[in-house]
Amino acid sequence: MNSTMIKPGAGRKLKNRTSFGQSVRNSLTMAYRGLLKIRRTPEQLFDVTLQPIIFTLMFTYIFGGAISGDVLSYLPVIIPGILVQTVITTSIVTGVQLREDMDKGVFDRFKSLPIARIAPLAGALLADTVRYTIATVLTFTMGFIMGYRPEGGLGHVAIAALLVIACAWAISWIFAFFGVIARTASSVQGISMIVLFPLTFLSNAFVPVDTMPDWLQWFVKINPISHLVTAVRDLANSGTVGWDLSISLIGSAVIVAIFAPLTVRAYMRRT
Amino acid sequence: MKEINPNNGDWAVEARGLVKSFGDNRAVDGVDLNVRTGSIYGVLGPNGAGKTTTIRMLATLLRPDAGSARIFGHDVAKESQIVRQLIGVTGQYASVDESLSATENLIIFSRLLGLSRTEARRKAGELLEEFGLTEAAKRPLKNFSGGMRRRLDLAASLIAQPPLIFLDEPTTGLDPRTRAQMWDTIRRLVKTGSTVLLTTQYLDEADQLADRIAVIDVGRVVAEGTVDELKASVGTSSLQLKVQDSQDIEDARRTIERILKVQAKLSSEAGKITAPMANADLVTDLLIALREAGIHLAEMSVQKPTLDEVFLTITGHGVKDDASSISDESNKSEVARV
Fold first, then answer.
1. Beta bridge partners of B297
2. CA of A31: which chain B residue's CA is closest?
3. Residue A85 lies in a domain
4. In this protein, which residues make up the domain named ABC transporter (chain B) (predicted)?
5. Nearest chain B Cα distance for residue A120, angstroms
6. Which domain holds residue A249?
7. Three-class SS of residue A156?
8. What confidence score (pLDDT) does residue A2 get?
9. B196-219 as b/e, with b when 16 or more CB fall inside 10 Å?
10. Which stretches in chain B have pLDDT values below 50?
11. How high is the pLDDT of residue B268?
């Protein structure tokens, strides 16, 4: 500060727009910030560590006998189902934490910096893929310990894992939107649960669809969660790729295309 | 476009009729400000006067409901991303990341501003050194004192070396020593060519730092000028005398009124007389007259009008509710408590 004179404001060359490259760079830096925060407060990973373990154990042993006859033959059905449910529930936390984060003074500084407006949001969401990865790995591991041997092989399981993480990231934009517009963190939790609970349970995640009444089957079949679960089952259990995979990816892209701009606009308006 | 409005960089801030309402409350009600490049400009006012809201509009954090503002000739609403490249903002509440260390904070802000990894590391080191935070650099901010947090906050605002820096109540809640350090830092900033716009509710702070002051009250600028102009608008300095023997006080008062030809006041404190001093020359005559009359003085002082009085005169009312935080004496006691 002492050695260098500051360049006068009038003499600077400036642009009023941020390039795409800059947006990506800014988002990655913000993701790095998110990772640092996770490293500083590892206790916030409790939910993604405990939930897969407890839920997988609980659901498998409670429903296994009733639905598939025995636990072992239920595993190929339940593991993909519980995986999708767990990871997507985890994405709610993204919205809650974003709300908490935004109440802190540091977001004022982010707003006053000449960075891409989307970066603080995209970065936070990107860092949270770490959480989804933990949940995914733990669910598959729990399944493996209980005797699940996916026929599709490790490669296809990895693709299935990536698919779930990518879809959860897309869906987290919805909760990020709630996070930005909601007044408090706990209300984000509330709204998100109301949306998510019917979506995950009114799907083929836990039980065969043909045991449900017709009107419910109709909903379950259009429920995007069902398509994602089916796509994961196809990949992990038989190593095949079907329509459901495409539908899941297209659905994710649509969610991002709608909710990312909405969220950024709400974020900009909110002060 | 910019040629239409030739601004040779003379004005860092030009604001016209800024208005911002929150519900029914007009927090800022038509504020005009002109800040010359390279100066320290003080916005002075009590809590809730609209200082922070004004700064937030100038710093592109809030969109004005009406009016316009230009930073170095760039409109805050239409060219906000350009404006952001020209400013540094240090908020009232430290805008740094609590859960990270000082170094990590500065590195992240540097990276966001486009510095490379090594540049960011070097810059963070430099700033920490300069603000005396090197030892605490690795500790999480939770353990930082208020003063350290403010210094880190200011350091973060200086990464891009912005030509204009907004400081929102930079010393609120700091102890007197850290406050003085902060003032030195601000003065040094201006020497490197920065322009500083600061808000404060401490009158002595504006007095110490600012070249010009705008006094703001319930969302309006009620007075504007240099510190001396504002003081002059209130009136002259006053002469204060204390006599050794309180028996003499009436005689002393008559002598003062005869020689200075003004009304003198006896203050409640025993033996103290206050009189406006329009003509300093006459004081010599007064002192001689007092000695000839055999009145011995215990104390003599000249009091310049304080900005407290300025504020009182301009607004016609004292500072409401937290009047205590305005007078300098109580500032110190308040700071000590924090």
1. B243
2. B108
3. yes
4. 13-243
5. 10
6. 21-269
7. helix
8. 42
9. bbbbbbbbebbbbbbebbbbbbbb
10. 1-6, 320-338
11. 63
Could you give the number of structural domains in chain A?
1
Do B77 and B169 share a domain, yes or no?
yes
Q: What's the pLDDT score for residue B279?
A: 77
User: What pTM was computed for the model?
Assistant: 0.78
Q: What confidence score (pLDDT) does residue B336 get?
A: 36
Instruction: Give the nearest partner residue to A113 out of B94, B99, B112, using CB atoms.
Output: B112
Q: Which residues from chain A sit within 8 angstroms of residue B88, using beta carbons?
A: 112
**Chain B residue with Cα closest to A25:** B112
Kindly state whether residue B322 falls inside one of the protein's structural domains.
Answer: no
Checking ipTM against 0.85, whether it exceeds it is no
Query: Would you state the pLDDT for residue B107?
Result: 94
* CB within 8 Å: A40 and B100: yes
- Nearest-by-Cβ selection for B163 from A8, A36, A37: A8
CB A109 within 8 A of CB B158: no
Name the strand (E) or helix (H) holding B43: strand B40-44
- Angle among Cα B37, B180, B217 to the nearest 5 degrees reads 60
- Smallest CA–CA distance, residue B185 to chain A, in Å, is 10
| Count of domains observed in chain B | 2
What pLDDT shows up at residue B334?
36
Asked if the C-beta of A36 comes within 8 angstroms of chain B's C-beta atoms, the answer is yes
Q: For residue B252, give its domain range.
A: 236-303
Does A2 sit within 8 Å of B9, measured CB to CB? no
Name residues 294-323 of chain B within 8 A of A (Cβ): none
Q: Name the residue facing A108 among B61, B71, B81 (closest C-beta).
A: B61
User: Which residues of chain A carry a pLDDT beneath 70?
Assistant: 1-13, 270-271
Amino acid at A270: R
CA distance B211 to B226: 6
